[in-house]
Amino acid sequence: MRIVLVGPPGAGKGTQAAFLAKNLSIPHISTGDLFRANISQQTELGKLAKSYMDAGNLVPDEVTIGMAKDRMEKPDAENGFLLDGFPRNVSQAEALDEMLKSEGMKLDAVLDLEVPEDEVVKRIAGRRICRKDSSHVFHVTYSPPKADGVCDACGGELYQREDDSEDTVRKRLEVYHTQTEPIIDYYKAQGLVVTISALGKVDEVTKRAMSALKGDE
């Protein structure tokens, strides 16, 4: 299957992408991983992306599209892939369609993870990270530490990242509504969108997604 995963920040796209890709035996292709791999390997696209990023500028669509194209041409993606974070806007979606068409392929589904805006804010703004070890992550509501502000694992101080503040989250949501959400309508016109609720436990959402992709819902 060739799937695009969409949803607002805090919808759990990365978590669901990993589980779905494993269940479907297809690679999980995330924009973040693409950028990290190309920059660390110093590919031509990676160098180009880094030059824009170092200058504080947005990386042009054609660079992101080029990275995605290279990755989708790898042998492990021959039978499908799950795209996470790409396409990010309608022009990228159009480019993806052209890319697949030129290879005689097309998307099978666009999975839209639906989460109420207030829940997104609650999920992200409630995160607390350990200063000693950033892999230790807590949540004031869903997984609170035993002692307020103290990491259970190492006793480090817990803090809220600037990116996780409510103001920042709401700004990220505005960007999502303006830039990324329009691709849902773009794909709805092609009859590809499958919308599911991303509320509940991780495994519940995964089962919901698998059922929807199989056409059981």
Would you mind describing this structure in some detail?
The chain is of the alpha/beta class and 217 residues long. It has a domain at 2-115 and 180-213: Rossmann fold (3-Layer(aba) Sandwich), CATH 3.40.50.300. Helices cover 47% and strands 15% of the residues. It has 9 helices and 8 strands. The strands form 2 sheets. It has a 5-stranded parallel sheet, sandwiched between helices. The protein has a 3-stranded antiparallel sheet with strand order 6-5-7. A hairpin with a 6-residue loop joins strand 5 (127-130) and strand 6 (137-139). Helix 6 (117-125) packs across helix 7 (166-180). The longest helix has 15 residues, at 166-180. The chain is globular and about 55 Å long. The model has no long low-confidence stretch (mean pLDDT 94). Keywords: ATP-binding, Cytoplasm, Kinase, Nucleotide biosynthesis, Nucleotide-binding, Transferase. Belongs to the adenylate kinase family.
Average pLDDT works out at: 94
**Which runs of at least 5 residues are low in confidence (pLDDT < 50)?**
none
Beta-strand percentage range:
5-15%
Which architecture name of the domain at 2-115 and 180-213 does CATH use? 3-Layer(aba) Sandwich
Structural class: alpha/beta
Percent of residues in helices comes to 40-55%
CATH superfamily membership of the domain at 2-115 and 180-213, which one?
P-loop containing nucleotide triphosphate hydrolases
- The total of beta strands comes to 8
Keywords: ATP-binding, Cytoplasm, Kinase, Nucleotide biosynthesis, Nucleotide-binding, Transferase
Organism: Streptomyces aurantiacus JA 4570
Enzyme class: transferase
Region (NMP): 30-59
